[in-house]
Structures are given as structure tokens and as C-alpha cells.
Amino acid sequence: MEFKFDKSNFEAEVLKSDKPVLVDFYADWCGPCQSMGPMIQELASQYDGRIKIGKVNVDENQELAIQYGVMTIPNFKFFKGGQVVDSTIGVTSKEEMEQRIENVL
Amino acid sequence: MRDFIIIGSGPAGITAGIYAARARLDAVILEKAYVSGGQIMNTYEVDNYPGLPGISGMDLAKAFRGHAEKAGVEIQQAEVKGIEVLPDRKIVHTSKGDLETKTVLIATGAGHRKLGIPGEQELTGRGVSYCATCDGNFFRNRTTAVIGGGNVAVEDAIFLSRLCQKVYLVHRRDELRAEKILQESLFDQDNVEIVWNAVPEEIQEENGVAAHLLVKEKTTGQSRTLDVNGVFVAVGIVPDSQAFQGVVDMDEAGYIRAGEDGRTSVPGIYAAGDVRTKALRQIINGAGDGANAVNSCQKDLATGSWK
Fold first, then answer.
1. Gap from B51 CA to chain A (nearest CA, Å)
2. Count of CB atoms within 10 A of residue A83's CB?
3. What is the ipTM of this complex?
């Protein structure tokens, strides 16, 4: 299942998560984000229980975007133990996303 | 074995899909992304497509795909890795396995061209962007530069001028290539400064993000430093044709050689849209290419000259 993160649950769900977390920073008006959306959803069910995958809407959560230096979207950040351990930007193939997920598991 | 495999679901691929469905061809569209549309997904406003003034690129892309689905064409998510040409069929290698077909349409379109200057790659995502509609909001009330002089560059500069405190448009010539109506709208923006005859040389960082764009003014030979928070690159496109190198003839830039009928150097392989050699690359003639390719394909299937 895909999560929805925002400033109110980010600390509990992402930073203090016992599993690694993949955060998809996106916006509704961003074409490439729309194009990545269904893949991220697919990955969320594929890796259910092993990694937490969820979205942050940068329009509604500008503080989080600024805090994590998001200046381009789509922007994918991998968190482990409250730290960003990997990140990638832009349209990315499913094979690459799977590889990056496997690396943080 | 399929009659017709369409690679790509931008305006050319979608139109070909609609025409193929109506011609009752056994066809499928393969799209590497999870949504359709190609480059128009990044267009804020499409204002030159008949009947739909002011529609957003995203809405147009959705309408295109919806039309193809309604016409009954199958669309699959798969990335094409190559085409193998055999005497009696073609094999399309994809990320999800091989598919056999009589004919193939390459409608893979194009992606954005890079500047190839120091700092560009390193600062991509940290101030350097290729999509103003995506990233413009991160530069609200700040200073940005757009590089280029075509429609996309001018559209980007207009879009950004509504968000940013100041926008530079850096162009290597002394006039813009963009449509006049776009130029007029650009010249109306008080916070846009056009830097004419200027070639970008380097993007420099400060504290890990883009901070300075160095340009050389061609007429004077002098360098100038523009203090900016963001650099938006819109210097044209490169065809998405790498997977077909060595299969069909291409020009030096990688565009697939084909006339208006879409026929390439290989019988039964067609090219349509931005990936084809042509003078103007717009949504309207991309769609036109798709229709033409299906017409050629039907004729070749009927006469057997697709082999």
C-alpha cells in the first residue's frame, strides 16, 4: 500500500520508521510526476511490508521540500534510520527503482 | 503475429493507434512511461492545436489516450530495446519480452537536449532544470535564467515571469525563433531581460546549489555573470532513436530518414512524429504523421511489400 506523508506524520512515519522508506516528492501539475505515479504505486504493493513507500505533495508541504533541498520533481529520497541514504530525480525506469530499493533493504 | 506494433504514445503514436483500430488492424501501442503524451506532458498550455485553445498539455495527453482507448486500441507499458528484421516477420524486443509483428511504427519522439557545459550535470536537480512547469514553483520570488530562443524557451520564460522576481532569457542569436505571438507576450513582461547573442559557458554553485550563470556575449567577446537561483534549459530536442540504430537509416542527428508517407529504409518499418526527419515538429503534424503511417502500412500489408 502507498502512504501519504505530510508535515504532521513525517517524523513518525518516515524518520522513526523501523523499515526503510521511499518518499516520492511530487505535485499534481508536474507531467513527469504523473508519469511516475502508477509505477510508484506498483512498487508499493510489490514491496509491501519490506519498505514503506509514500508520496509528499510539495505544494501542500513546502517546508518538507525546502528542508530536504527539493528543487526539482519528481524527486525520490530513500530514508533509513531517519537519514537520507539515496536519492534520484526525474523519470526513472522501473528496473533502476527496483535496484535502488534492493540496495536499501 | 500482430499486423502492426506502434512504439510510443505521443500525438503520432496515439493517432496511428486510432487509425489502426478503425482499419481493424491487429495493433498494439507500446509505451515505456506509465502514462501517454510524451513531451506534451511538460507543456503548460498548448495554444496552437485547433479546437482546443489554452488546453494544458496534461489534459490534451489524457484526451488523446482516452480517444485511443475508446477506439479500441490496446496500450501496453513496455520499453522497446530493439527490432530484429527477419524475411517473414519482425521481432520487437521489449522490457517485457519479445513480440512478433508484420510491421512496426517508430513514434518514440524526442527528449530535451543538454547544453554540455560545466556545472550543468552536477547541478541538475539543484537549480538546473529542463521542465519549467514542473520546477518553476521552487523559484517563486527568486531569479532564474532560461536558455534558448524557440517556443519552449519563450513559453518557459513567460511562465516563470509570473512566479519569479526576475527572469533572464539567454539566447545565442539576435532574434528569437519562437512564434511571434509568444514573443509579443514575452516582451510585455517587465521582469524579463533578454540577453542577446550570448552563449552559456558555465553554471557555478554556491552552498551546493546553482548561483551563477556565466555567459559570453558573442558580439563583444566579453563574459558576463548572471546571479541566478535557477537555470532552465530549453535548447531543443534530441530524437529518441538509439534503440533503432543500425536497423533503419538516420541522419547525423539521429532522426530517422522517412518522407511524409512514413516509410523508412526498411520495408514494413515506419517513422512518425518528432523522431522523423522533417522541417517542423509540432503536435499537429505529429498526429498527421501517425495517420499517414497507417495509410502506408495498410497499403503495404495489402500488396505484401511490408516484407
1. 22
2. 8
3. 0.88
